Amino acid sequence: MTATAPPVPDLAPDGPGPERDVAPALEISKRPNPIRRLIDVWHYRELLGNLTRKELKVKYKNSVLGFVWTLLNPALYLVVFSVVFQEVLRVQVPYYAIFFLSGLLVWNFFSTALSSGTGSITTNAQLVQKVWFPREILPLAAIGAAVVHFCLQATVLVAALAIFQRAPSLEYAIALPYAILVLLILASALAIALSAINVYLRDTEHLLELALLAWFWLSAIVYPYRQVAERLGAGREWIASLNPVLPIILTFQRVLYNPEGTTFGWYTNNNEAFDIGNRMGEQQVPALIHHPLNWYMTRLSWVGLFAIALFFGALWLFGRLEDDMAEEI
């Protein structure tokens, strides 16, 4: 008679039992930490690229003008705000078009990244429910699409620089890539956190719209930062720095707007920069306070440290909320 092996005990029975009770705890303990989550995203980088392309295609699907709409957005803003602030409210800022576009370029990226990133998981519900992949890729794909729009809209600013024959500041140019990096980390952190919260609290998207509206007007984009600093007074200027986007906007304005710098071919000092307005009998006031390079680098560093801490906190929060996302969607 052939001996048969004893049956292997079922360690995970179908019915309730002690083994069933400990399974969820084991799953929670296996949650990847933020570093592991970043590694997973890197392993799925090809999927990230595909989802970014999908975001871009879906946005302008069946559109005649396509990506031209991305260029028309800052152009229309420029026309409207130039008329209102220069012609109606008489805000006399030299080269207002470049001043405005320098800040608007930052803001359009930031607001688009947050708006698209917040709804990225709920709008891809079918994908989330069918296949496993690092879900953080969805808000990061929204960030990737926003980067493409950022680059396209930058061409409008480059055209404005060429039209007004203005050159960016070479002295402060090193701060620009640093500001872009800080902006990317800050936007990614907020998009990841808000995308997870929005799955469980759908009011997040609507609340974000109101928050971004208020945030826009607090960010010295359409009016000079000098007015904010003068209202706050000496010693209280740090209050404005509580807005993490403001140092990034000021850096862009300092490098690209560059009212005290050079034009293409000749030097322009502070007084000569405002000659046109003075000849018209209007008093022109410098939009920016002159600060050395380390002033910008220091404030960007503080925002960068905050953004990095927020980014890892967002990954931790995403991991805590990820388990029931497929069911909640």
Describe the structure.
This protein has about 325 residues and is mostly helical. The chain has one domain (about 35-329). It contains 15 helices and no strands. It has helices at about 20-30, 35-45, 45-60, 70-90, 95-120, 120-125, 125-130, 135-165, 175-200, 205-215, 225-230, 245-255, 275-280, 295-320, 325-329. Mean pLDDT is about 80; it is low at about 10-30 and about 265-285.
List keywords for this structure.
15 helices, single chain, 329 residues, 66% helix, mainly alpha
In short:
Helix content is 66%, strand content 0%. It has helices spanning 18-29, 34-43, 45-59, 68-88, 96-118, 120-123, 125-130, 137-163, 175-200, 203-217, 225-232, 246-257, 275-279, 293-321, 325-328.
Summarize model confidence as the mean pLDDT: 81
How many domain modules?
1
Helix content: 55-70%
Shape: globular
- The count of strands amounts to 0
Strand content: under 5%
The value of Rg in angstroms is 25 Å
**Could you name the ranges where pLDDT drops below 50 across 5 or more consecutive residues?**
8-29, 264-283
Coarse structural class: mainly alpha
The description of the largest β-sheet is: none
Q: Please count the helical segments.
A: 15
N- to C-terminal distance: 57 Å
- Secondary-structure element sequence? HHHHHHHHHHHHHHH
